[in-house]
Amino acid sequence: MSRQALVVGASGMLTGVARWLAEQGYLVTLVGRDQGRLAQVRDGSLYPQSFTLLPLDYHRTDHLREAMEQLIGENRHIDLVVAWIHQTAPDALPTIQQVLSRPNKNWSLYHVCGSKAWLHPPIVQEIASCTYHQIILGFICENEQKSRWLTNNEIAQGVIRSIQSQEMQSIVGQVEPWDRRPSS
Ligand SMILES: NC(=O)c1ccc[n+]([C@@H]2O[C@H](COP(=O)([O-])OP(=O)(O)OC[C@H]3O[C@@H](n4cnc5c(N)ncnc54)[C@H](OP(=O)(O)O)[C@@H]3O)[C@@H](O)[C@H]2O)c1
């Protein structure tokens, strides 16, 4: 039976991760609000048949819970989740964790966080069946004067490296020296 992955926030910087998961043999469910953008992720893959689109707004917790319940219905099990969720939706990640943990089988959560997580780590529920991995998106110091944020490609490659290494915490780019963090 194929392994199943869920990518939340799938049509932006995680596009390359979603397509890579399909290449690894996963069946991949994509979450984002705009169905057209999700379809572009699928249609740009060599394995479009591996994708299911799940357009929803993760601020709407009831909708999200219902969608997650449908996802694990009929004895399905999600093996791996990659989640990039804006801080405006604090209930989204706990909702996903609670529902996907119900089958009581082990699964892995790769939580993609902004650079501020370095100084202020997010509080995440501990659930026995959910192995939590944190990925902090840092920045790049190009020289003594210049620093910049990561590109989508750097982010996607960094997330893929983290999934391959299964590290508990990984940093894409750098977070120190903190005062070199780009201002905008
Ligand atoms: N440290 C760094 O260097 C760093 C960190 C973060 C971001 N960035 C850069 O900043 C750019 C913009 O960031 P971004 O946060 O807009 O990320 P993004 O990955 O470009 O887009 C956000 C993703 O989440 C989905 N999404 C947004 N709100 C949603 C909601 N309420 N419900 C469900 N899905 C939702 C979006 O699809 P829909 O809009 O269709 O819902 C999209 O798939 C990125 O492309 C990245 O390059 C850099």
Summarize the structure.
The chain is α/β, with parallel strands linked by helices and 184 residues long. It has helices at 15-23, 35-43, 61-72, 92-100, 152-165, and strands at 4-8, 27-32, 51-55, 80-84, 107-113, 130-137, 139-141, 147-149, 169-172. The mean pLDDT is 96.
Give structural notes:
It contains five helices and nine strands, in the order E-H-E-H-E-H-E-H-E-E-E-E-H-E. The protein is of the alpha/beta class and 184 residues long. The protein has a single domain (4-180), classed as 3-Layer(aba) Sandwich (Rossmann fold). The strands form two sheets. It has a seven-stranded parallel β-sheet with strand order 3-2-1-4-5-6-9, sandwiched between helices. Helix 2 (35-43) links the parallel strand 2 and strand 3. Helix 1 packs across helix 5 (152-165) and helix 3 runs parallel beside helix 4 (92-100). It is globular, with a radius of gyration of 16 Å. The chain binds NADP nicotinamide-adenine-dinucleotide phosphate. Residues 9-14, 31-34, 37, 57-59, 84, 86, 114-115, 137-139, 149-150, 152, 155 line the site of NADP nicotinamide-adenine-dinucleotide phosphate. This is Short-chain dehydrogenase.
